[in-house]
Amino acid sequence: MHRTSLETVGIRYTGWAALNRDPLEDTVEYTCPHCGTKGAKAARRPRAVYHFTDGFVQDLQGEMSACRKCRKSLRVAPVVLVHDREEQRRFNAVFLAELEVSKN
Ligand SMILES: [Zn+2]
Fold this sequence. Notes:
The protein is an alpha+beta fold.
């Protein structure tokens, strides 16, 4: 079987953006590039590996995961740290627009 691991953008909420969430829960959220199912995984990489790139604090190496629905492996990269509403808005504008385009 031919296995490829596609990449998808991950988002890790922190600060204000994580206020309505369990503080012990530190997850990276993503959308499966194979089937479009939304998923989340526990964030493993330390914040120290995140660097300010293109207006966001990102981990460009990302993390590996597997979709809970189609079970295919995927790479979550970059993982973007979002800490407030303004960054959330910019993230949506920059990354989600890009994802929509790459689907077509
Ligand atoms: Zn999937």
